[in-house]
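re: ur question from yesterday

yeah so i grabbed the chain u mentioned. its 289 aa long if i counted rite. heres the sequnce exactly as i have it in my notes:
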Amino acid sequence: MKTPATFMLISVLSLTTSFAMTREPLWKEGAPGAKGSEPKDIPTLDFYPAENGNGVAVVICPGGGYGGLASGHEGKQIAAWLNENKVMGIVLEYRHSGRGYRNPAPMQDVQRAIQTVRARAAEFGIASNKIGVLGFSAGGHLAGTAATKFTAGDSNATDPIAKLSSRPDFAILCYAVLSFGQKGVTHFGSQHNLLGADASEELIKSFSIPEQVTRDTPPTFLWHTDEDTGVPPENSINYYNACRKYKVPAELHIFAKGHHGVGLGLSIEGTKNWSTNCISWLKAMKFIP
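ran it thru and got these structure tokens back, copy pasting raw so excuse formatting
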């Protein structure tokens, strides 16, 4: 499949300044299982390089219930915040049910995104072992999927990107949809959009992310709000407890105020500190100098 001419250098406005964003198709030869060649069939990566970067990059997965993408306050604004902290941001526009795609397409896209950034680490001036994944809401489920259902890479692949590991070096999960199949905890809209309303119990369990945590799961920062009724904080608590069980370094913050989907939450006292706490955690974990 040919690359559409619409993928070009674009100027966008960050929170405080203008900076350059380059959009590229994630799969240059067409995504696996693509149903056509329209924009909805073409997942993309938006690259936001950081000026005087510190060698760290983060793949960003906006939320949207696996039926859309909140690419503004959970995508571009997050890339701008990362840039302000000298971290490269890469926004993944992944396939979802609103574009006619369910599992495994989103997982394939996030795995490929991490592999792509790792393959181009030298080009971007980043360390290949300092590539994280960050996600909000259902995008947090996708980021959690990347952190627990990664591939080591295929050494026999002819595609050099496919040879590399898709394991992120750290994960940042923001009011994430994580537990599937649990009444009172699960956001069933996200579950149904990803797996279908008639998914088997086995499939549902395999995508309940806390149950996929192992000793190989990367260090994880989680935050939620106590007022979140759409995706209750038990989702983050369950994941955090799983990390403790397997001795995976993890940090969890539950803030008092804020409904679901607040993004940076800059107007919410207390909750607005999540981003500062996250940078402090990255420094404590030696990802950021």
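noticed a couple things. The two ends are 41 Å apart (CA to CA). also The mean pLDDT is 93.
anyway ttyl
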